[in-house]
Amino acid sequence: MPENDLLSLVQERLNYFNVKVAHVHTETALEPDYGNQIEQLSFLHPKIIEALRNKGINKLYKFQEESVRKILGGKNLLIISGTGTGKTEAFLIPALQFALEGRRSVLVYPTKALARDQLKRIGEFSKEIDVKVGVFDGDTSEKEREKMYSDPPDILITNPDMIHVGLSLSYRFRSLVRGAELFVFDEVHTYEGVLGAHVRMIVDRLRDFGDIQVVGSSGTMDASPYLFPELFGVEGEIVKGTLRRRGIAIHALLDIGSASRWTISAYLASILIKEGLKVLVFTDSQQMAELIAKISSRFGAEVFVHRAGIRKEERKTVEEGIREGKIKGIAATSTLELGIDIGDLDAVILAQNPPNFAKYLQRAGRAGRRNKPGYIFTLLGSDPIDSYYLRRPKEFFERKLTPLAFDTSNLEVVKIHAAAYLLEKGRIRTQSLPSLWLRAFRELEREKIVIINGETILPTQKLIWFVKRSHIRSTGPIITIYDQDGKVVGERELPVGLYDIYPQAVYLISRHNYVVQSMDIDKLKAIVKRVNDDIDFYTKPIYSSHLMSLEEIEERKVYGLPVKYGAVTIMEVIEGYAIYELVGRKDRPKKEVYYDEPITFTYETKGLLIKHPILPEFNEIDAMEAFHATEHVLISAARVTAGAGLTDLSGISYPSGHVVIYDSVVGGSGVTKLLFERLEDAYMIAKDITENCDCEDGCPKCIYSPFCGNNNKVLSRRKSFRLIKTVTENRIDEKCDNLSGRPIA
């Protein structure tokens, strides 16, 4: 169907919900510049030149040629080029050349599924020149492992999780990996937050605090000269191709107003599926993915779910189904954001504006591959940042890519790798350690996991148990979810799991409704009961958050306000839950229920503390409404300035004018550090949001938060604007007094 016809059809059908196509942006094909004929590349082995020619490649792109030259010359390199522009060849050609010279390489992909998916593509190239390639992960059979141990592949494909476990638990795996000279980390843009900190520690262990050659690759990220040493611990250069994808894409921004995101996503998916299109709906919430799939059936379309927390077999069935055309629609979280082969997709629906532009480009890049035009529909609704971009639609597509945010000082992460490193070595001298690792070992000693005897660190019996139960995808404790028969049906990480798993919460698993019967936070165990799938309501927690302590790392003034960044201790208290209608008002619950005994969880993370003035014209209630609304709108602004996801940051407001904003993961993710550095920009965006909303004194378009602990009470857009305007224009020299009063989260 021609572009205009499809968009007209979509607009006609969406009129039923009063949803409008607000802006259309057409992205045309961008071809990178070509370099020399491959016959002129005398530094390449004749077998590789012949294999390239057989694949119809007569010239490399300039960025590919430059990358190959630098990697073969021993340089550490970060390759950045758009989706489908040949990044893989840029690092695979040098790995193949190394193989022909008797040198081994390791290709590291962020997920096991993606690593397996790339084997076919790499294998086709490698077989032609007689280079052995193998995949080593948790699914590799013992027979395959034995074969690789005795006859190591020239190119080993794996993932960070396998390297973490393998280095510490298997001397044969250590030998296999440490025998390699080149380590390639693809899809580097995924290594943000906690995972980015873990990857840095893994590379430190691979280097053994010495040097290895490291190459990174990404299609959707910004990179400063500081990124490479921060992420990989060594200096490196950057080579850039074209920063946009190849092919044609039609990007449509939809103004959904106050309509339900999951209802509109499901309805739009059903429209496109009925027109014969293959559709992928992205959302950042596991529960929203389940809801979209569930509601789609009401519109006569079958949409399957692909997310973490469901069985691997289910995800595989969905991937194969859409690739073979048996399935036409999927609702997914970031599990399908990367390049897993699911065949041609005609359209991508973004139920939420992704947390940053890099994720937008990555998800949009799934549509229209293999020289087919793709459609990308982004739902912009009644929240502050969506409203901001509906006023400035061109700015939506002109955003700069934000740098990766990760915190390499996350002590919870360092502890995991320090323990694994000791398990590998057997004993360690304290003199050989960086100061942060030594601090981590001191913490492990207090937990009786290691013994420090003078200058020697030794393991205890608890060490192997600690390493085996550690995860690199998280830092918080994991709640295991059981059904009433004792079968494991899912798991959630704390603290974020608190907001889904609490007594009487409605929880969706594989498009079916469950209700949480009990949750024991000490035993990290929840029990759920299957209930009727026709429930017409959902639940949200009522909670409060408390700043227990702050250990200052940095302090600076922002528009005259004292701002501290440091390590914070947060106590989360789940006090009850609210019941909302599935179809109806989303801004107010129809019922609130409070527990006799609240659920509490205390953890350490990173955060910032801002002290605002109490304006002379404000009484106590006015001031609290201003501070709470300003907390919400600054967290919203962090989505633009720091690339924060919807649940990456949390906040607390105090009557004394203090606002706390902190990373929502144990140990910290690095997002608040980036916000701390860009807080002036965040205030200007917050000012724009509170000044330009057309509501009376507060609504989802400006200051409401779907994650507010008290269901958006004690808020005022007008008072927040007055506070921000006064601060940014008058630059009041505020003093950092002690915080006081009952907090609001």
TrEMBL record:
GO terms for biological process: interstrand cross-link repair; nucleotide-excision repair. Pfam families: DEAD (PF00270), Helicase_C (PF00271), MZB (PF09369). InterPro entries: DEAD/DEAH_box_helicase_dom (IPR011545), Helicase_ATP-bd (IPR014001), Helicase_C-like (IPR001650), MZB (IPR018973), P-loop_NTPase (IPR027417). One of its GO terms (molecular function) is nucleic acid binding. It comes from the Archaea. PROSITE patterns: HELICASE_ATP_BIND_1, HELICASE_CTER. This is DEAD/DEAH box helicase.
